[in-house]
């Protein structure tokens, strides 16, 4: 049995210790009571005080735990800097992304006609996009190079696999044009891009699935184009795609597009094209203004395939211009292009368009990035009857390097095989060597 001296010393030490456990103190008080060290009255008071201390300590611990939980709980907002700055709520209700692109070109020209060597900021854009209340989306993109708005639209995605879009955006037409300029095989799109549908203000509905897509919209005019006292032009556009084979590294794509434009109020239209290069700005084929144009209809047929690192893509586009009191005009163009990724990547595909290449092994992580070689033949015919816009055929060779997902460096060699007719360059054969550095985030 413990002596009275030892029991009192233990009691004093435990009572002064902040870390004393209530159960140990209660055991000690019971031992003191059993050994006659405290009276029944003292024992009752000590047990009451111990109970009060237990309550106080429990309250203090609860307060500390609450503050600790508040300080360490995760934020309601997730922040990501991969591929742009993205802020997203954890419940997925809201998100905001800041992105953009900068493309810097340099080109040197040979052969004829004379075209000045030089450099150019091909595109410099900044955009804001995101989600509102999970089902609503938005995007606003500004082009600094020509001080204009490119995309400005709102989407509703509340129906599974369906989308409704309102605002300013691309008319759904042509595979080559629907692919982002960040992700095209070559620095510039093929010669038939002279017939691209452009961007207009309108409303569009789309249905997307793994094996097929369809989109259709009705559009007014372009941003900033007003008709004054006259009505603005309007149009409609539709595009459908079928991909009976669609899995990573394997694709068969077939597409069909129609694009109609009423050419009010000016009743004119013009088609022209550069030699798949933008630095000099020289147009090697050009119809000039076609008067008495009432409307035009464009028809496009698309075909593409992916087999592992190999991609092939082709299109044919025909444009018919309906003219008042004069014969109609018909123009067409086509291209065939292919690429091979030497480092084994495969070109991604989703919702009827190709995406960007992401290297399997990044530079800086022990890899060499992704390397791609490409070849294209394209043709454009702007001659019809009295309209002598010229016909051009060109061959293009390309090399692309993707060191990391957001960077791309490209080099293209363009040889125009022949220019037949046209207002200025009949029989000319220009050559182009051009390079680009691109940062897209």
UniProtKB/TrEMBL annotation:
Residues 1-22 form the signal peptide. Keywords: Signal. Coiled coil: none annotated. It comes from the Bacteria. InterPro entries: Porin_dom_sf, Porin_O/P. The keyword Transit peptide does not apply. This is Porin P. It comes from Methylophaga muralis. The gene is oprP_3.
């Amino acid at each position: 049995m413990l002596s009275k001296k030892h029991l009192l010393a233990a009691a004093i030490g435990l009572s002064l210790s902040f870390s004393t456990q209530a159960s140990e103190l209660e055991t000690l008080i019971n031992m003191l009571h059993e050994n006659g060290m405290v009276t029944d009255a003292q024992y009752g008071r000590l047990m009451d005080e111990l109970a009060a201390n237990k309550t106080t300590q429990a309250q203090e611990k609860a307060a500390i735990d609450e503050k600790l939980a508040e300080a360490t709980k995760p934020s309601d907002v997730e922040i990501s800097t991969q591929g742009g700055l993205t802020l997203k709520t954890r419940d997925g209700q809201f998100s905001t992304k800041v992105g953009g692109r900068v493309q810097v070109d340099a080109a040197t020209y040979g052969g004829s006609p004379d075209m000045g060597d030089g450099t150019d900021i091909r595109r410099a854009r900044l955009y804001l996009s995101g989600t509102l209340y999970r089902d609503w989306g938005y995007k606003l993109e500004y082009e600094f190079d020509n001080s204009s708005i490119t995309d400005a639209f709102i989407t509703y995605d509340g129906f599974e696999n369906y989308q409704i879009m309102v605002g300013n955006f691309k008319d759904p037409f042509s595979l080559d044009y629907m692919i982002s300029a960040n992700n095209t095989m070559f620095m510039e799109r093929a010669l038939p891009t002279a017939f691209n549908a452009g961007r207009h203000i309108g409303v569009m509905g789309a249905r997307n699935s793994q094996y097929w897509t369809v989109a259709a919209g009705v559009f007014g005019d372009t941003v900033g184009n007003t008709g004054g006292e006259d009505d603005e032009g309007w149009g409609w556009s539709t595009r459908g795609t079928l991909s009976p084979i669609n899995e990573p590294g394997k694709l068969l794509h077939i597409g069909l597009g129609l694009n109609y434009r009423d050419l009010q109020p000016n009743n004119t239209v013009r088609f022209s094209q550069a030699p798949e290069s933008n630095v000099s700005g020289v147009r090697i084929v050009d119809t000039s203004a076609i008067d008495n144009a009432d409307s035009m209809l464009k028809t496009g047929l698309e075909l593409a395939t992916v087999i592992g690192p190999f991609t092939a893509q082709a299109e044919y586009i025909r444009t018919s211009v309906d003219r008042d009191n004069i014969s109609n005009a018909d123009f067409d163009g086509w291209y065939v292009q292919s690429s091979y990724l030497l480092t084994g990547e495969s070109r991604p595909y989703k919702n009827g368009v190709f995406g960007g290449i992401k290297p399997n092994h990044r530079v800086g992580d022990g890899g060499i990035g992704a390397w791609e070689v490409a070849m294209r033949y394209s043709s454009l015919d702007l001659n019809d009857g009295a309209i002598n816009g010229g016909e051009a055929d060109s061959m293009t060779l390309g090399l692309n390097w993707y060191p990391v997902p957001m960077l791309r460096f490209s080099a293209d060699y363009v040889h125009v095989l022949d220019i037949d007719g046209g207002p200025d360059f009949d029989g000319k054969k220009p050559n182009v060597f051009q390079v680009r550095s691109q940062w897209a985030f």
